[in-house]
Amino acid sequence: MKTLSSISLADVQAVYSGAEGNLWKLIMGEQIHIGGLTSSMDLAKRANIKAGWRGVDLCSCTGAGMRFLTRFCNVAHMTGVDATPHMVEQGKKICKMEGLDSRIDFVLEQATSTGLAAAAADFVWGEDAWCYVADKEKLIAEAARLVKPGGAIAFTDWVEGPGKLTAAETERFLRFMKFPSFADISDYSGLLRKNGCEVLVAEDTGRYAGCIDLYLNMLNMQLTYDALKIIGFDQNVMAALAGEMVFIQQLAHAKKIVQGIFVARKA
Q1: What digits encode the pLDDT tens for the residues 144-201?
Q2: In sequence order, what are the residues at sequence separation of 6 or more whose Cβ sits closer than 8 angstroms to the Cβ of residue 207?
Q3: Within its chain, how far is the Cα of 5 from the centroid?
Q4: SS3 sequence, 202-215?
Q5: Contact 26, 227 (CB under 8 A)
């Protein structure tokens, strides 16, 4: 497990309350995770999410994952947990506008301590967001506490790949991305087992590098003006951001960063 103690929850909240979060949404779409709808469909299928289930989305952002689950999997109800007030407020507005507010609600809490009832959810869900949580052990323990016996914990996340990050690469990558800690596939698998779960899926999706290539192509070939507008047309900032994205692209193609997919069942 890689860590960077200088990154705090306040840093993450600042990202998703301002221009940086808007940039991610510009290039990644409303779902803001690697692979978009394809990734969500794959995760739901592997977890065997069923119509009528009730779930909890930890680090739900504006609730795009929950809206996917209600529309495409016909889950009965979702509760989103997020620690950024702006994301919760936006999520509530979008769900109301799209007529889903009776099936989706939000709580403004940290994913490691949600305050929700124990063993009440059929499944816990997450998409490329648990990398923002510092204490992965408490996060997985909370996921296991929330889900019913026999229920599913299903998530994707940015994780360290087999290429392994150097100390310098770790510092630069975590600082830019505002990740306080960074797990690999074995870290998450071990924590799931420690919390009484059988790990059914724990692997690299193979999507990460191709998606990073796509995002850079979009910024360079189509969305340059849109991105500049978000950052106040500051070309120096744009150049710095582009440099960090190229750095991540290099790490991706060296298999030092991948998107992991995980499905576990609580005993």
Answers
A1: 999 999 999 999 999 999 999 999 999 999 999 999 999 999 999 999 999 999 999 9
A2: 34, 35, 38, 39, 259
A3: 20
A4: EEECCCHHHHHHHH
A5: yes
